[in-house]
Recover the amino acids of this structure.
């Protein structure tokens, strides 16, 4: 998968590198994300921009930490021809992710974790949503998605964010 990353809405940092590492780790746990034709955009932006997106696309007039906008149905994703990119076909747009800086930074502070670790979690969460995983469907789906997130983050050397929440 290729990521188109825009970090202009965030303070200086290694955000593009973090996004690449998160995508690589996610593809190890959710192999459908490893398809070479896939492209996803990742916007590091402000709470104001995420609030606008949330209001326009989700009818929720508030900021949130991460928004995902899938552009490919899961059934189409898992049935992509593995040789499609080798045949010179154009990229396949998986979807868009937007991450709100102020909300992400506040949550990281509340959880007493680094902004980088929390951001990595949100990137992974967003990528899994683009791949068709959805924690809102059922408790079982939520648990499955959390387990995948924990495995991806472990590959990145990041502690289980859910265990940290439960120990408080």
């Amino acid at each position: 998968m290729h990521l188109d990353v825009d970090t202009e809405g965030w303070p200086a940092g290694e955000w593009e590198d973090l996004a690449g590492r998160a995508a690589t780790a996610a593809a190890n746990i959710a192999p459908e994300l490893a398809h070479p034709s896939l492209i996803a955009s990742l916007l590091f932006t402000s709470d104001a921009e995420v609030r606008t997106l949330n209001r326009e696309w989700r009818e929720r007039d508030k900021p949130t930490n991460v928004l995902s906008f899938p552009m490919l149905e899961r059934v189409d994703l898992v049935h992509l021809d593995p040789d499609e990119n080798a045949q010179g076909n154009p990229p396949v747009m998986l979807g868009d992710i937007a991450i709100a800086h102020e909300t992400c930074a506040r949550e990281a502070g509340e959880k007493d974790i680094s902004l980088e670790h929390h951001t990595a979690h949100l990137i992974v969460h967003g990528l899994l949503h683009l791949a068709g995983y959805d924690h809102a469907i059922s408790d079982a789906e939520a648990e499955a998605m959390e387990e995948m997130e924990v495995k991806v983050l472990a590959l990145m050397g990041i502690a289980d964010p859910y265990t940290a929440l439960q120990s408080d």
The chain is about 50% helix and 15% strand. The mean pLDDT is 90. The first strand starts at residue 2 and ends at 6. The two ends are 36 Å apart (CA to CA).
